[in-house]
TrEMBL record:
SMART domains per UniProt: AAA, DEXDc, DSHCT, HELICc
Molecular function in Gene Ontology: ATP binding; helicase activity; hydrolase activity; nucleic acid binding
Pfam families on file: DEAD, DSHCT, Helicase_C
GTP-binding listed as a keyword: no
UniProt-recorded name of the protein: ATP-dependent RNA helicase HelY
Amino acid sequence: MTETAAVTEERPPAQSALEQFSRRLPYGLDAFQREACARLEEGRSVLVAAPTGSGKTTIAEFAVFLARRERDARIIYTAPIKALSNQKFHELCEQYGEDEVGLLTGDVNLRGDAPIVVMTTEVLRNMIYAEGVDTPPAGESAAGGRQGRLSDLDFVVLDEVHFLGDKFRGAVWEEIILHLPRHVRIVALSATVSNAEEFGDWMHAVRGGTDVILSEHRPVPLYQHVLTSKDLAPLFVGRDGEMAAKGRINPELRMLEAGGSRGNRGGRGARSRGRAPERRSRRISRSDIARALDETRLLPAIVFVFSRNGCDQAVRQCLFEGIALTTREEREQIRARAQEAIKDMSDEERRVLGVREWLAGLERGVAAHHAGLLPVFKSVVEELFQRRLVKIVFATETLALGINMPARAVVIERLDKFNGVDRVPLSSGEYTQLTGRAGRRGIDVEGHAVVVWHDNVDLEALAHLAGARSFPVNSSFRPTPNMAVNLLERMSADRVRETLELSFAQFQTDRAVVGEARELRAMQDSLSGYDDAVKRARGVDQKRWEDRARKLRRKLERGRRQIAARTGTISRTFDRVVALLTELDYLGGTLQDPVVTDWGQLLRRIYGDRDLLVAESLREGAFEELDAPGLAAMCCVLSYEPRRDDEGEGRLPGGTEFAQSFDQVLDIWERLDDLADRHKLPRADMPHAGLAATMHGWANGQPIEHLLEAAGIGAGDFVRWAKQTIDLLDQVAQACENATGPDYARLTALGTTARAAKRSIRRGIVETSSGA
């Protein structure tokens, strides 16, 4: 044996990617994490369903590590909201370096060709549909160009994939899973849902090679409490009467509930006789909540208040009653960070944005967090809470969407919330999401969920919410006009129908159909191969291939008829959409073999619930008399969704041009509404004037302080709708700039106006809130 050979024999075996990754972690992997990572390394996709705070993100981080370990591999990391995308972007930049990580959120387009790209799910869906669409101008939308390249993509992380059940946005997750190239491995991360196996079976049926990894273990135990006017009482007690994570309901709370019920009944009778109620619980104020959490050492804490005004009022009440939870050193750190964040604001901006009150609350360790806050304010609150400088955050439920704000305790003020129409009870899924923020791995040894007591609390209902750790995910998928033209641009109508038969919506309707539809797709591929062979064959060979093709074609048609007869609900909806689009000339050809027209190509680039209304308005010239501020205001109208059914009508900008354009858009909407009804399709909500006048003023250069005061809205709300408006303006610009046909010249001019409108809005606090 040579010396070289001896050295080779003594060399230790190469470490697996999982072993290398594990060595980098400051903690050991749990069994479910190790299993999921091993499956990924084997080349499989995974659906991981586990409790909030259990460490699902570690599996996504392994996928990133695996992608970077493999030469030229790329990975896309998606999150349901922009705040989460921004947070994950910064985390990955710290780990892999800024040159390796990109961010695409619609209003930010940064290094889209990087090997690791973080984006919202909508951006990824748009990229999938935009494959083959001309590259947009530099610096514009994320859909298209090299960042839209999916051929060299190896992994996609779908965080919070249980959002698939959301009735407004859930279809986006389903479209991604259906239409991503088959070679891409998916890392789907979900809360503990009761039908995870069903969801995983569907993913395996449509993509193959998918494993379901389940864990119900919460590494940080969660204890349930009820805050009464006297003390913080455990909801459950064990055999020895001590606090338990689960068990029987605390007898002391039973007595309180019985007393409250008697007091309520007595109160109603007493009032009829002119006497005061016999027994009623003292109302627990938000400052009482702060004191109780401080005294029981349950800080830092998140207190969920299902009202933006309620969150702001809670901070004011704590200030008024002298709540102070920070040391002098902590106050100095808070003050320095907050002053850095607002250094570029004018005195007038600081006044209208309520900076003095915001700073006062922060320095005492108390803050609000909701969609009405300016993004920079929310960012500072999140950072200071993570650093354990801010001790209590009064937040709306949007904070439960996965933002990294680890709390020792979570308080829920009420077990019902206003949904825009009525007060409705919290679902078990909502309760699980909210309380899941309490107790974070590696930080806390236990978490605490606290419900504030009032006389209408139903202990049995509360115990059910606290005990039900999972909820089902049901599909909200349905074909839309934009989806139809994008799919028909890529495949035949028959192939689209077969693809739609693979949807999770169809799978839940009839699980067997998905397997049969997959077989039909394989038959169709084989038939295409036979047809090619017939063209090449000669003599006897030709007859043999023709016979094979004929038999397969009959079998394929028989299978299609069987599927259509059994269910076909999604396909029938698609056929109705095709009929409507054909009637409007977005599709040509026949209903059986439709072809995307020039106007259909324009519709391909318009996304959202009002896709067809925007396209029709462009076609009928409803925007052509508008200048840049007017077009900005109109795109705000077409983006805006009222928060509640009884919201006022809003104000229109002055001038006849906008009023005429608005009336024309309403006429188009009414016609499309009637058309949708005739074709038995869902109808879009009527456009709402909303912030049209406010957006028009902003685009004309008016100062933000006057606009917010006149509109009576928060800066955060304005920035959010400004970003939505920018996104639609960008879509309009791309659609018009890529238009073909006889309307090319007028649409190109409108595209120029849309670009100018976008620039007029993206300034001041909107610009500073759009950075990564």
